[in-house]
Design a protein that fits this description.
197 residues, 3 helices, five-stranded antiparallel β-sheet, elongated, 9 strands, alpha+beta
């Protein structure tokens, strides 16, 4: 902000009209500066509230995936759940004891290109994923999952105690059939059986 002495010097050197304009300009700039402080404060409060709300959400939706962080995971239990809506009667469930799902290709599951219609709602600490035929209800605190028909009939539910247990597993460096000489030996035995019969 311009100092008072420098303002007086400026005004002394200016005409009456210029001095009046300069004074009005300085008053307006002072008001804007005061309002900007208030606006900055309001903006900071607003952003803090928005960010707090976003991080407190019980789920995130991305395409046909709904990812739910478990708020109170148990030891050897899931920390994250992901429901993939494949169709109106198929909801695939994935669980991990890590803080995110690692992208990996499956040799068993064919990539899903369908874009099924579904809704996700949050009510009383539960995340509800609904299709035309069924709904999956996940308790955000524990990760407990239950599946219901559209009319409310229980189809499948995890055990309230236990449910999902995740134990780390390391694939051995050599599995039967993985070594080329073992695979060749099995093929040779099959050929001998065919020739001998």
């Amino acid at each position: 902000m311009v100092g008072f002495t420098s303002v007086l010097n400026m005004l002394y050197k200016q005409s009456e009209w210029q001095a009046s304009f300069t004074m009005k300009y300085l008053c307006i700039m002072n008001k804007i500066n005061e309002n900007m402080k208030s606006a900055k404060t309001l903006l900071i409060v607003f952003l803090a509230l928005c960010c707090g709300k976003m991080t407190a959400a019980d789920f995130t939706r991305n395409g046909n995936y709904v990812t739910i962080p478990v708020k109170a995971p148990v030891v050897s239990g899931a920390k994250m759940l992901r429901l993939q809506v494949v169709g109106e009667k198929i909801i695939r469930v994935q669980a991990t004891n890590e803080l995110s799902f690692k992208p990996k290709k499956s040799l068993i599951i064919v990539p899903q290109t369908a874009n099924p219609r579904y809704q996700v709602t949050e009510k009383a600490g539960k995340v509800i994923v609904s299709t035309a035929a069924m709904k999956a209800i996940v308790e955000a605190k524990t990760g407990h999952i239950a599946f219901y028909s559209h009319d409310g009939k229980l189809l499948l539910s995890e055990s309230k105690s236990g449910g999902k247990t995740i134990v780390p597993f390391k694939v051995p460096s050599r599995e039967i059939g993985a070594d080329s000489h073992l695979a060749t030996a099995f093929v040779a035995l099959e050929i001998l059986k065919i020739i001998c019969n």
